[in-house]
Design goal:
single chain, 108 residues, two-stranded antiparallel sheet, 3 helices, elongated
Length: 108
């Protein structure tokens, strides 16, 4: 993985961002990445205020330009997640919590 990061840095320096993303995407595909594929993963979702979190399978579209898929290894709920989860009048259910995470880039 270190080699891919080094290659990515060199590519970003040599090309404009769009060209670099295309080259990185091709390299990740050769490694069996998820580029261009819809992936299924698990997410902690809240279906209503103060309701228990449910671990659900969700479909995630392929990354758009300047986006990446990251395989999440560890995550947690932050203060803003907890605050939103407790709001009675929240309009945005079901949210997927756990945006503060560490992981591995799978595709670009």
């Amino acid at each position: 993985m270190k080699d891919i990061v080094k290659i990515g840095c060199r590519i970003m320096e040599a090309f404009n961002e769009e060209s670099a993303m295309k080259v990185l995407n091709e390299r990740f595909q050769r490694l069996g990445g998820t580029a261009g594929k819809v992936i299924t993963c698990k997410a902690a979702m809240a279906w209503g205020a103060k309701q228990p979190l449910a671990i659900e399978e969700v479909q995630v579209d392929p990354p758009n330009s300047m986006e990446v898929h990251i395989k999440i290894i560890h995550t947690s709920l932050c203060h803003s997640d907890l605050t939103f989860w407790m709001l009675e009048d929240a309009q945005q259910f079901p949210p997927i919590f756990g945006h503060e995470a560490t992981g591995i880039v799978e595709s670009v």
